[in-house]
Amino acid sequence: MTYPHPIIAREGWLFIGIALVVAGLVTAWAGWWSLPFWLILVFVVQFFRDPARPVPAAPNAVLSPADGRIVAVEKVHDPYANRPALKISVFMNVFNVHSNRSPIDGRVASLEYFPGSFVNADLDKASLLNERNAIVATRADGEQVTFVQVAGLIARRILCYVKVGDTLARGQRYGFIRFGSRVDVYLPESARPRASIGDKVYASSSILAEL
Question: pTM here?
């Protein structure tokens, strides 16, 4: 499940193409009045950027699955693996990279999609009320990590490219969420958090916790 087209995510090609054509047509028709359409094109391009990222070598590190800001570090119940857990949540605004990457090396043990609402993903209740897609992955040592793509107020499309039984490598691209959202990571209670609320993190290169 390698991603052959870095820098600009393939999920954005259609949107960028449409924005470019519209900006070009308005320019031909209205001249400099087309400036807002070129600004929209710039926004769309920056939203769908998908740069390569370095992956830390520490074998017990759990990496951030998304770019964004830490909005929760707390002990909770993991409803997907049915266990007590440490939850770390990453909120993505429209200016963050929205490509999702695996936080661990492991095999996909379960995958569940849940339809739901579209409340602000910055709120804690979004974790259980919003549309979401949950993956439980098992490491070689038997430890399980759950990572959940959560739709937001504007996000209306969760994309996931893996299935049960697939093997994931840390930093491997596995999905995408369009236009503002959140990713929740549920870890074993014994995990040691390395991120704090308010921290800015980057997919694949930032360490959320250690197992």
Answer: 0.84
